[in-house]
Design brief:
This protein is mainly beta. It is 4% helix and 43% strand. It is globular, with a radius of gyration of 20 Å.
Length: 410
Amino acid sequence: MNKNIIYITSGIFVLIVGVLLWFFVLPKGADQPEQTGTGVQTGGTQSTTFAVGADTSASNQPFSTGASSATGVTIQSVFKIDDGPVAGAVLIQTTRPTSTIARYVMQQNAHVFDLVLDTPGAVARSASNTTVPGVAEAQWAVGGQAALLHYLDGDIIKTLALSLPPVSTSTVRAPARMRFLPDGILDSAFSPDGKSVAYLLKSSSGADGYTAAADGSNPKKLFSLPLSQLILSWPAPSTLLAYSKSAAGTPGVLFSINAKSGAVTPLLYANGLTATANRDFSKILYQQSGATVPISYSRDIKTGLNSPLSFDPYPEKCAWSSVATFALYCASPLQFVGSGFLDAWHSGTQTATDAVFGYNLQTEHSVILAVPGGPDGGVPSDILSLGVSPDDKYIVFIKKDDRSLWGVRL
């Protein structure tokens, strides 16, 4: 269900005992190295270009800011898309004409809107008026033609698969199609191509994982895990990830699951573990949080080596680049936060103002791309989640307190 609304950590100590045997197959390389740090590259956020390799062509530079209008006048890079509350958003690209569109679903009624980001003064157009009151979270598939709407009906977690037609300039709106998935879904994720979905259901011994078409049809059981409180993602076509929900200082474990065979492999374990993997499953960004400050690492899948990052982002507030497998964008506080911050953040008792960072796993350098509420525009923001456009020219984020929707021009 909602990673940021329903965050259950109780019982992890008991549940983790059931998977201790998994740990014996872990390589010794899973031990964490000491944090060394490499320094944060900041500079002016209005004119920063962050090359990602020897090839310095425009298509190989995902980290660049300084948006300019047709007249050459620099404009603010942070801008509001909708007052909200927004349940979820995705960025789509069209070719006729070439444009970037923010597609988003409203929390109060599940109505879907499209807004062209490249056209000054553009007005949001309705994409669906299907009404579902009180949507807690919306998960979008790449391309924006499928979404999972999660909401509560009494004490029951309901999930509705919404299928939409492609983005069109036509004034005639095609109807959306709907299908209910099983009740009580613990977590879910779309495949990288947006054609399939995976979800978790509680079992007597933990959780069972299922895959289905993006609209929820043709479900089949794929795997089982001896834990029920899990976070699920589908980073690469052949690989799913699942890790235990854990608090600071509480043992956590990360599993990979073969998307075809359902084979489960434990990858690493750490206290207060959160993680995300890139789209070719060559790198994992993970954070451990114990009694001291949280520390973030990049893990090479082939070698098992861990490299400390030059800053300590929360993986759940990061999104991988669409054009470079070794680059990612993260929302991270500029000020110091302690080891228990993420737990308090989930419970709503603490907040922090974020900046948007870019990080290059090849060069191990980071750059501040935008600071909402500063010269870049916008307002100070505690960012809930990030999304990246297919060409890495825009970022979209939801502000946690009021769930307003914002964009960042890169």
